[in-house]
Amino acid sequence: MSPTFSLFLTLAVAQALASSRPASQASGAPSSTPAVQPASARSSPAEASTPVALPPWTPPQDDEERVQGELPGADAAVDKPASSAERPATAAVPVGPRDDEERVQKALPGTDAAAVNNPAIAAGDAMDPRGAAGWRPWEVGGFIDINYAYNSNNPDNHVYRGTSVQPRTGEFSLNHAVAYVRRDAIPGRFSPLFEFAAQAGPAADALVAYEPVAGGANGKFAGPEVWKHLSRANVGFRTRRGTEVVAGLQLSPVGIGIHWSPYNWNYTVTWQLNSVPYYLSGLKLAQTIREKHQVQLWVVNGWQLLADNNKAPSVMLGYTFTASERFNLGEYVWIGPEQADLRARAWRLFSDTQFTYNTDKFGVSGLFDVGADPRTDLPLSPWQMWMNGAVFTRWRVLGKARTWDMALRPEFFWDRDGRMFGVPQTLVSGTFTNNFRVFNNLLLRVEYRYDHSTNPHGFFYRNSAIADDATGLARDQHTLFFSVAGVFAHRFGGRPV
């Protein structure tokens, strides 16, 4: 046999043996290597809708990458302001992967723990049948917020007057601890809704401070001690066509931000948010129309009241428009009796308008409120009015897995007759926040806040001046906050997206 023919025969046999082996063995990869990346490691809902082929061999992810893909913790908190694991609306996404620049956070305020039941933030869940098979409806989670606040006025009672979110100053404080369980609607299906959240800490006590006093005229079997450990407790259902009926203690959609501070762009909240309901107790009816629009009707006990202070409910109408993943608009109108006089001429009138534009690297939102109360309980039945506005901005400074964000918020609150905060004044504030996400579920925050009151007798507690009518109240206040928050959320049930 000639050398040329022998060489040719050897090459032919080698080629035949190579073509008969499985592709995974031919490439040198283990035969157990999956062909599709696990859903828990995908970095966006869009990528979750399309299988992603792996290269022949993929090095294992480190812990930070796994956490980033699996937990919706503090990263969601700093990427959204105020008012998520993703909302059900994320099922309706374009097919095909998108890079980090194109993946945007849906809306205010933070994780879906905060936002999914807040229709002021987005119009509702998209009715995309592709989402029904993969959406995990249940979530369990919570957070712990610990802070230290230095107040330039050093009030003897350690109270930051006018707020219920960070009510203590001049000390280390276990400010707020929350644990919750929730069941969300599956897009395109008739689904039950359920939410329960328990809370504790100074922020929990301050939240219910204005409930009717237990044993008083309106407070038998009710009052702050009864309600203070309940943050949310409601049940309901959503139909496949987007009709929602929910009853119980619910998150209020009014204003930008919520009482759960880790989910807001800034650590402290606006004077506006401290003047509107953080929660509502009653019935909500909502209808999503063509995915972008939602109309709402709320029938509730009253203005942040679990136990009503009169014999008639109040009504709120709402409309939200979600133009895209990046932009949404909300409008709420409140009409109802908030005093003993139930006549229509004594009803409170209030309007809240808000918008949000938000991406991974930048966000801006704003709100404007105006309200009036005809005080028939006072001589000459004067109309007491208030008005306020705020602009929220945030921007990403550094990082993807570990991030540094900044947020700046100017605001004003015109309380002409002292209806909201007790004395006639205009409150002007500026807040600057640094948010450091050290791990996916660990958030460090440093915030400076300046407050000014135009009331000539002052408004803020200072040293021994700790009564609302005391002499020596301050007109200015500088506060520096240091906060560390641990945030946890885990979705389960159904099949992963």
Automatic annotation (TrEMBL):
This is Outer membrane beta-barrel protein. Residues 18-35 have a biased composition (Polar residues). It comes from Nannocystis punicea. Residues 1-18 form the signal peptide. The lineage of its organism: Bacteria, Pseudomonadati, Myxococcota, Polyangia, Nannocystales. Pfam families: BBP2. Residues 18-103 are annotated as: Disordered. Residues 38-51 have a biased composition (Low complexity). Keywords: Signal.
